[in-house]
Amino acid sequence: MSCGEPLKQDYFNRPTLEVTRDLLGKCLCRKLDGETKRLRISEVEAYDGPKDKACHAHRGKTARNEVMFGPAGRWYVYLCYGMHWMLNVVTGPVDFPAAVLLRGCVEVIGPGRLTKALSVDRVQDREIISPDCGLWIEDDGCEAPVTEVRRTPRIGIGYAGKEWVDKPYRFVWEKGKLA
DNA sequence: TAAGTGATCTCT
DNA sequence: GAGATCACTTAA
Question: What is the pLDDT of residue A176?
Fold first, then answer.
């Protein structure tokens, strides 16, 4: 498998929904014990700014979510339900809190299982997305065709109110599931 | 279908 | 400091 080009900070400094959509088909890369794992991203969700009631930042900045208020291109990792680490990519400009939740890859579906498979936890929280911290995203030229991408409401955010629950901010690359 | 799990947030 | 909440998984 040929190596791709690691995505740089400015790639993530674009409208959140654009970045979310574009991440489908990219490679999530993890270096462990000298070996590099590459997983094809197939499921993502957008959490877009302070007005989005499903976004952790909609109530303002806290110790946990402050990385989302910083520059794009960093990891936001936090523990959910006492046992699952959620892996997010910070997007958008400084002071606009937004992120993309990585929910699954072709090989591993499920946000909690993904982080478990890659040994991701609080160590990566707030790190810059680059090979330097052992966890990064590469573009190897693979594109998820428009016709194969499905948009659905987000998962597990029933508390956010109808307007936001209904938004189709979840992107799934169907073909990825079949592979 | 329900229990497990613990950090974080909000209210006293 | 206490209690509720939570962007989930697994085993029945």
Answer: 76
